[in-house]
Specification:
Three copies of one chain form a homotrimer.
Chain A lengths: L1 H20 L3 H4 L8 E6 L4 H17 L4 E6 L14 H9 L3 E5 H6 L12 E3 L2 H10 L3 E3 L2
Parallel strand pairs in A: 1-2, 1-5, 2-3, 3-4
């Protein structure tokens, strides 16, 4: 039985590893070790929506310490991330506080914007919509303010 | 071989339990035992959007008997849940029919609203946006009408 | 030990199969074999939003070859899929390029629309909102332009 017991032990620990690897997204809410992650979509030219997204990010920071927060702006929402945006200071503050803020490269090409036109603190992705898909596949919650 | 067979049996049933525990969200659609769950976000001050969210909830109730339905109102959407909201009766009916309706505490504080201002049938959460994240982490689908 | 080794091999391969079956949605982003899937919601009567959704779908096709793309129109968004919609040609092109486009049956009933009123290339579901829930449960990312 010694071999069998050892085998049982090996398999039990294997099962634990397997369990950890396959822990589904739906179980994360119950697991205090899983850091919450959220991606906010900004796709409107409305500054009230920009402020709402920034307020939302702040509330998440306040209520969920250590949460990973990303804001993706694309389409008409790209204006939020311009250097002369009326929320430029709030965007910079958000980045300084740990929020990742990214602009859609396709939108910038379409609107003939260059990095010189944009808030110097932001990041860039090729396609905002693909970023939003990738993040959801990685287990981020999606909020569209 | 008896011990080994017994061990095999034990491990097989263990694997089945493990499989059940780690069934991913993506497989739920195929599992008739998984009750569908959906959270609706209302974050606009537009009564047409409030009615659309309430219509959506009704359609889910009609087509997916037993589904868990929650409506979260925050930001400019909080007006939907005031006692004097033009959809107050419909909100009360939704609650009576089993829909959970929650208001964002951060928004209420910001707009200096108290529970006396609100529909008496609703629930409250500290942050609407965190509720929306939590529900998605728990496997709820997200709909933003 | 031969039996035990064989048993170990059987169980290890079983564990691999189990691991593959229970791979959670959150891990898909890292797995090149998992085809990305996305469902776009169109629920506004604004043609700018219809064009944005169609642009988004195009960008996904460009940047994520082989992605599964679906557009669900319901409520005030149903106009996008009418035969005389100002984006009717773009909708037809999207279908021809592999995008699945579906209209909400509940909305059509409510607006007294028949299939004769609609773009002949589209599909139909009983409830757009249930389609959006089902797709998310199947692991689709959700984008609401």
């Amino acid at each position: 039985m010694t071999h069998v017991n050892k085998l049982l032990g090996t398999l039990m620990s294997g099962a634990l590893v397997l369990g950890a690897l396959t822990l589904p997204a739906a179980a994360n809410a119950m697991d205090p070790l899983v850091k919450p992650k959220v991606v906010f979509q900004v796709s409107e030219s409305d500054p009230a929506k920009w402020n709402l997204a920034l307020n939302n990010a702040k509330n998440v920071q306040k209520d969920l310490k250590g949460a990973t927060i990303e804001i993706v702006a694309y389409g008409p929402g790209i204006g939020m991330l311009k250097a002369d945006s009326e929320v430029a200071n709030r965007v910079s503050d958000a980045v300084d506080s740990g929020v990742k803020v990214v602009a859609c490269g396709n939108t910038m090409k379409g609107q003939k914007l260059t990095k010189e036109d944009m808030n110097p603190k932001i990041h860039y992705v090729q396609a905002g919509v693909v970023e939003l898909m990738d993040r959801q596949m990685e287990g981020y919650s999606y909020i569209r303010p």
